Amino acid sequence: MTGPAEKPDLDSRRNIEIFVDAFYARLLKDDRLAPIFLDVAAIDLDQHLPHIKDYWCKLLLGDQTYQRHTMNIHRRLHARRPLTAPDFERWLAHFHASVDAGFSGPNAERAKRIATSIASNMQASLKP
Fold first, then answer.
1. 10 Å Cβ neighbour count for 120?
2. What is the rounded CA–CA span in Å between residue 24 and residue 3?
3. What is the rounded distance in angstroms from the CA atom of residue 52 to the CA atom of residue 24?
4. pLDDT attached to residue 3
5. Is 115 in contact with 95 (CB distance < 8 Å)?
6. How far is CA 48 from CA 14, 37, 87, in A?
């Protein structure tokens, strides 16, 4: 249970969905990252966001709905527009800021550690 000043943890699908919506709202206001998502990847938010919510529910809650292979998706994107270290740094900064703005607790901290690992691994995997 949380008190009035406490932030919820990322410990339920509802909280993860709220987080993902807030995170993408932040990303899509970023002058550097928004074109990658909207122009290069040409994501349809109505289709993309449910996948991202399922992905984070898998990582944080053990939900098995998400079954896609994220590296293949990002390799195709990287072939169209190389993803650079500054892109990953900004993505990660927005991720951490979005978590910290609305959530706290063990899963919130775990999400930040996972995101840091994802950014690092993806950046290393996409190098020529």
1. 12
2. 27
3. 10
4. 52
5. yes
6. 17, 10, 19
What would the two tokens of residue 109 be?
């901290």
Q: What angle do CA 35, 40, 44 make, to 5 degrees?
A: 85
CA distance linking residue 107 with residue 110, whole number of Å: 5
Nearest Cα to 27, choosing from 3, 47, 9, 43?
Answer: 43
Other beta carbons less than 10 A from residue 28's beta carbon: 15
The three-class DSSP label of residue 49 is helix
Residue carrying structure tokens 């909207």 = 38
First-to-final CA distance of the chain:
48
Task: Give pLDDT tens digits for 29-71.
Answer: 999 999 999 998 888 999 999 999 999 999 999 998 877 777 7
Asked whether the beta carbons of 57 and 2 are under 8 A apart, the reply is no
Burial 90-114 (b: 16+ CB within 10 A, else e): bbbebbbebbeebbebebbeebbee
